[in-house]
Specification:
heterodimer, A: alpha/beta, Rossmann fold, 2 domains, 7-stranded parallel beta sheet, 8 helices, 28% strand, B: alpha/beta, two-stranded antiparallel sheet, globular
Chain lengths: 323, 259
């Protein structure tokens, strides 16, 4: 049990938060297991970012080549596979992001290592990991153990661990690696990134967001909520299912794949609170949630909660405001 | 264009109080209604749309008992040509075992695309599709929100975090995990689902797949499941709607929102 390997995720020259979050957990595990923390950076970043990574790991492995600049599921899988074979890390941490989900499961097959996804906590007991995950959209937690193996691969939920603000400099060694000569040709090609969140209005600027989720029921009901939002000078927003149904445009979507918002008050109506949604409201001043389901995960992060039919609350608010 | 689409029937758990069963490793399923996994619903629609455009055959496949055939019949009613159910009997399943079972059933089928949902509503794992791709030796991409097939390749839209989308080309055959919202799944009536009974549905027992015991051994085990503590979280506002409304307005004003 010697090494925890963290796969850095970056986009357009910038490290993603998930990289810092995984390094936070890796550092905790280093202290409890005496594993060294190694971070692998595929693609290459500027000096400052490299330095930042080296402060937080015992080693920074660098695989730098123009062809590896953009994420590619085959290139990541093949290069990490070779590295795992060579170094045999006890644990490999990958972000549970779109990109991570696109190659980590294949890597687990290729290595033959036991694999768990979307971990919100990682423990080590008797030289084996034990992870905490959520099931049923966050309503249930599970503790998962693994078959004995030389190594384990875990994907980590974005936002599950804090990015440490200041850390003791670990003066990690930066080690450029040769690009493996036998890499197969990737079967997919990156074309471009497109911003899909832009629209006629910027919900991140609103002081009050009145946000609806699946609980709104029917498309016709949206007008009623919009009416209340207008009455209060608030802005209408929504969770993913509403956009999936084409009931509201994408620029109103709050959450991981939409906007991260920071209103003074976020009024969540009929939103159950999938973690992807909750990740988008961590910057909100006050969260008030109205939901019929007392066990909805949104109540675990809201400041105030109401277990009630949202339309009853809505009508009552309209009446009060009209006075 | 031949497409295999992997689907799953899951319990509906929204707005339901879940209870832990006597094993401590699962929830009580008896009181729950079952539906098609959200993501898979979109995957079937995408497969059928591609079939309508390019011809070929859509095969829907699931792992489950006889009751789980409900999702296959829905897929058939939506336009799939045939369906396969792998009956796992009392085999313990994890993502790895599931991916091996699917591999054994899919490997001899003709296909240019295999579609799965990004994840399932029950275990929220999001691993089976891309594991299956590796077993099959085909290209793979997760969280796909757009597919344009052009000859031997496809242009994909991939949903990244923060409202950003990636465009990529992928060689076929490929496995894509499909994100919700990629299309609007067509409505099928109860009558349509009944009619779909006439379409072929093959049942395969695990023993017929010829897999070694290593493939049928889970690599992960749920030790226990638990409900989050009740005390956690929001300060609850009690009372009738009128009282609640008043309190919400008071909080809004207190937090500096002019209503």
């Amino acid at each position: 049990m010697d090494e925890i390997l963290v796969i850095a995720e970056h986009r357009q020259g910038i490290l993603r938060d998930i990289t810092h979050e995984m390094l936070f957990k890796a550092d905790q595990l280093r202290k409890s297991t005496s594993c060294a923390v190694t971070v692998l950076l595929i693609g290459g970043l500027d000096e400052t970012t490299l330095k930042e990574l080296s402060r937080r790991a015992d080693k920074v492995l660098l695989l730098e080549q123009e062809s590896l600049k953009n994420f590619n599921p085959d290139s990541y899988k093949e290069t990490i596979f070779r590295l795992i074979q060579e170094r045999q890390p006890f644990m490999t941490l990958i972000g549970h992001t779109s990109w991570g989900m696109g190659y980590a499961p294949a890597l687990s097959v290729k290595t033959g290592y036991p694999f768990a996804t979307d971990c919100i906590d990682i423990l080590v007991e008797n030289r084996r990991p034990l992870v905490i995950r959520q099931m049923y959209g966050g309503k249930v937690f599970s503790k998962v153990s693994f078959k004995e193996s030389k190594g384990y691969i875990l994907t980590v939920r974005p936002g599950a661990f804090p990015p440490p603000e200041s850390v003791e400099d670990r003066h990690g060694e930066i080690l450029p690696l040769p690009i493996p000569a036998d890499l197969p040709r990737p079967r997919s090609t990156f074309l471009e990134l497109v911003d899909t969140g832009a629209g006629e209005l910027d919900i991140t600027q609103a002081d009050l967001l009145v946000s609806i989720g699946r609980g709104v029921g029917d498309e016709e009901n949206i007008a009623t909520v919009k009416g209340l939002a207008d009455l209060m000078g608030g802005t209408l927003a929504c969770s993913r299912p509403i956009v999936d149904k084409n009931w509201l445009p994408k620029f109103r979507q709050v959450g991981t794949s939409g906007k991260s918002v920071r209103p003074k008050v976020y009024l969540a109506l009929g939103i159950s609170g999938a973690f992807q949604h909750i990740a988008g409201i961590s910057g909100a001043g006050t969260v008030i949630a109205v939901n019929k389901d007392r066990k909805a995960p949104i109540f675990r992060v809201a400041d105030f909660g109401v277990v009630e039919d949202l339309f009853k609350v809505l009508e009552a608010m309209k009446e009060k405001l009209a006075k | 264009m031949n497409i295999v689409v992997c689907v799953k029937r899951v319990p509906l758990t929204q707005e339901v109080d879940l209870e832990i069963d006597s094993t401590g490793k699962d929830i009580k399923k008896e009181p729950l209604a079952y539906v098609i996994n959200d993501w898979d619903h979109y995957a079937i629609e995408e497969a059928v749309l591609l079939q309508e455009k390019f011809g070929g055959t859509v095969t829907a496949i699931t792992i489950g008992n006889e009751e789980d055939e409900e999702v296959l019949r829905r897929a058939l009613a939506m336009g799939a040509a045939k369906a396969i159910r792998i009956d796992p009997g009392d085999l313990s399943l994890d993502g790895f075992v599931i991916s091996r079972l699917l591999w054994a059933a899919v490997k001899d089928l003709p296909f240019e695309l295999v579609l799965t949902g990004v994840q399932a509503n029950d275990d929220n794992c999001g691993m089976v599709g891309v594991m299956l791709a590796e077993h099959l030796g085909v290209a793979h991409t997760a969280v796909v929100t757009g597919v344009e097939v052009d000859g031997k390749e496809a242009e994909l839209q991939i949903e990244l975090e923060g409202g950003i989308e990636e465009k990529s080309n992928i060689e076929l055959p490929a496995l894509l995990t499909i994100q919700t919202g990629i299309n609007v799944p067509r409505y099928v009536s109860i009558m349509g689902i009944r009619k779909a009974r006439k379409k072929p549905l093959e049942v395969i027992k695990v023993s017929e797949l010829g897999l070694p015991s290593e493939d049928l051994t889970p690599r992960t085990m749920i030790q226990e499941i638990y409900l989050p503590p009740d005390t956690e979280g929001a300060e609850m506002i009690e009372g009738n709607p009128s009282t609640v409304a008043e309190e919400i307005i008071r909080i809004l004003t207190e937090k500096g929102v002019n209503v």
